[in-house]
Amino acid sequence: MYYPYFLTYMLAGFIISILVFFWALYNRQFKDQQRARFLPLQGGDQAEPVRVSKMNRIEGYALLGLACLGLLTTAAVLIFALVRGG
Amino acid sequence: MDSSATSATLTNRTARAFCLTSAGWMVMATLMGLAGATELIAPDLSHNIGWLVFGRVRPIHVNLVLFGFVTPGLLASAFYFLPRLLQTEIYSERLGLITVWLWNITLLAAVISLASGFSQGREYAELIWPVDLLVVACFGLVCYNLFMTVKRRREPLLYVSVWYVCAAVILTSVTYCIGNVIWQPNSGALVGIPDAIILWFYGHNIFGLLLTPLAIAVAYYVIPTAIRSPLYSHTLSLIGFWSLLVVYTHIGTHHLLQVPVPTWLKVIAIVDSIAMVIPVMVFLINIWYTAKGKLGEIHADIGAKFVFTGTIMYFFVSIQGSIMALPQVQRVTHFNNWVVGHAHIGVLGFAAMIALGGLYFIIPRITGRPLYSRFLADLQYWLVLIGVVGFTVVLTTVGLIQGNAWLNGETVYRVLPEIHLYYVLRASLGFLIFSSAIIGFYNIIRSLLSQSGAKA
Ligand code: HEM
What we know:
The complex is a heterodimer.
Chain A: H1 3-26, H2 33-36, H3 57-84
Chain B: H1 13-41, H2 54-86, H3 93-115, H4 129-151, H5 160-179, H6 192-227, H7 234-248, H8 263-275, H9 277-291, H10 295-300, H11 302-324, H12 327-333, H13 337-367, H14 374-407, H15 412-449
Helix pairs in contact in B: 1-2, 1-3, 1-15, 2-3, 2-6, 2-13, 3-4, 4-5, 5-6, 6-9, 6-11, 6-13, 7-9, 9-11, 11-13, 13-14, 14-15
The structure holds protoporphyrin IX containing FE.
The site of protoporphyrin IX containing FE has 25 residues of chain B, from helix 6, helix 11, helix 12 and helix 13.
């Protein structure tokens, strides 16, 4: 009999989630969302200026090659499914 | 920020210890994977060497990847960014260090017990009861430390990464106990179909409720910080969080669609697997919009580059996963290397990529010096990327050969010679990934422990 375990698990998860959700609501966690967007930027990691670099040509080709390989596999699967599928 | 919790005053000792743990076990985990792949080419290789047979090597590989390499890597970042997001110190760095020691003892116990043949024989839940208790103790300590840190925070608003980390550690503590049937020390299992169901709740949740939320948490911190831009939408991120909790918890049965489990459970699993598109796309749209127009900044920071690539892999693995949950598709893809391909896109391409990205992002910030070698980190990036794309292509192809042969009623011994070549390719790609792990280990150790850092 697995129902008791399964239902206990689902019920426990459900009740805990509801409780936490209402805790969050009550504690105004869903307010002030504009400020929340900036929280990672307050950590004092911003001392150095941010650097920018460009992809060089070889890197671009390599990424394109890998992407094509992945996409070709996907295309092959689709063609296979359409041609051979029942 | 209060002066007691500025970046300069935080000691990051737990984060540092988790970095070392992850780097060390990464080498061992990939070595075991390579050993397994080699044995698939030459099954007699480990003949008569009990501790090296495939049946023992595989669970060692899997458990080390999950609990030795990826989870500690992601936790290292979590222990780094939580004090910064909450504007307080970690509740107890000493407790953190004790946790890391216990974590390593647990991993050692896992390897020794599995290599000696002590296994509960359930996929992803092989560890025997005493080791299970150690795992639960580790997660319990992490939970306590993190929750006390959250409790003592000076920043009232919880950023989305904090939500994800807390959910991951608490849900895993509970799921681990249930999935390993911890109240049955002898077998660690129920009987028959009920056991399969409970096992796959756990097996699925290890990816869905441990690796995924931790990796998402790291991405939500690293990307905005690296490009110095605010998150595109915090509201959207919270919608993603709550929908992930609702949807991901009940889909374990999509691993059992070919098994006589009750239909209603299969229906829930399939519907929720498709519904996963919602939390996945919410996260990806949010993170990609945050990064829009800032790819140069991401390219310049090797940590962010790993993390961003991980988000792309998350897109592929999740879309593939939703399709694989359809019974018609699984008639071909189930029980063969297709699933192994999916597993590697998910765990290596998504979760491990982000774990490595997190490590490379935080290490220079912890030490105050650039990485020992940006070149080696880049090399590792390319080796992992080529390895994981190669795995995808090779394992998907083998999976289709195997799946169709099975559907056509071919016998296994006729199919095996056909796929031998692919196994050779797969082991070669595994060698790339193992090499990348050694390079990464060296780079991380030198970056953390030596006194000077090369200019990046
Ligand atoms: C929307 C998201 C996803 C869905 C719907 C999904 C769906 C699935 C399905 C249906 C299977 C079973 C295939 C079968 O046995 O025939 C599976 C297997 C697996 N998935 Fe996913 N997946 C998702 C994302 C992920 C992610 C993000 C990871 C890793 C972090 C992951 C890791 C795995 C692994 C390791 C297995 C292999 C389990 C085994 O050993 O049998 N998946 N997934």
